[in-house]
Amino acid sequence: MTAIRVALVDDQALFRAGVRMLIESQDDLVFAGEAGDGAAARELAARSRPDVVLMDVRMPRVDGIQATRDILADAAAGGYQPPRIIMLTTFDLDENAARAIRIGASGFVLKDADAEFLLAAIRTVHQGNSVIAAAATRELFAHVDRGVERRPAPPSWGELTQREREIFRLAARGLSNGEIAAAEFLSEATVKTHISRVLAKLGLRDRVQLVVFAYEHLLPTED
């Protein structure tokens, strides 16, 4: 199995040293470099091509939100696989973390999380999943950015079947595959297939982005 390459971006040297030691203690992880601000993070990501980036939200010069935007844009322009980005924050309901998720981050982790949780988060996003539950994402977006103008649903929304829209609605509420399966009298494998089709049709990466999509377009999530 190929080791997961992890880069770290944070303006606190002691914090970086501790996280680096943690990552280097794991057989399946490789430390791919570190940076102290968003500008250096962009250069690091382009140079070392990490699989996962741990990104501090608040930093001098260029913050984590702009750095996330730049790194993902560089990958799209360069035609290479973008890294999964985990935002590091000190607040449970962080408006800046919400903005980072909206532009493509895979979730967020509190900076005082225990070591095992952080390691699990790295492995989780590398597998293509998010590191916060969809229900928590929904709460986050309900809490912040209340004045953001909502947009009409794009044409791709019309491509979803009635069944897919129902699955979308339940997933946007934060229900797990098992809970959706029970509600819809389906197997979990069938639900997983539906979720994959919904994400593909809407051009979304994961269930967290599905929640963001529902929030931004004011799509119904309740009966």
Automatic annotation (TrEMBL):
Record SUPFAM superfamilies: C-terminal effector domain of the bipartite response regulators (SSF46894), CheY-like (SSF52172)
Record-linked InterPro entries? CheY-like_superfamily, NreC/VraR/RcsB-like_REC, Sig_transdc_resp-reg_C-effctor, Sig_transdc_resp-reg_receiver, Tscrpt_reg_LuxR_C, WalR-like
In the record, which positions carry 4-aspartylphosphate? 56
Q: Which UniProt keywords apply?
A: DNA-binding, Phosphoprotein, Transcription, Transcription regulation
- Domain HTH luxR-type: residue ranges: 153-218
SMART domains linked to this entry: HTH_LUXR, REC
Q: Response regulatory domain: from which residue to which, for each copy?
A: 5-126
Signal peptide from the UniProt entry: none
| Top-level taxonomic group | Bacteria
Q: Which PROSITE patterns match?
A: HTH_LUXR_2 (PS50043), RESPONSE_REGULATORY (PS50110)
Q: Output this protein's name.
A: Response regulator transcription factor
What is the species of this protein? Gryllotalpicola koreensis
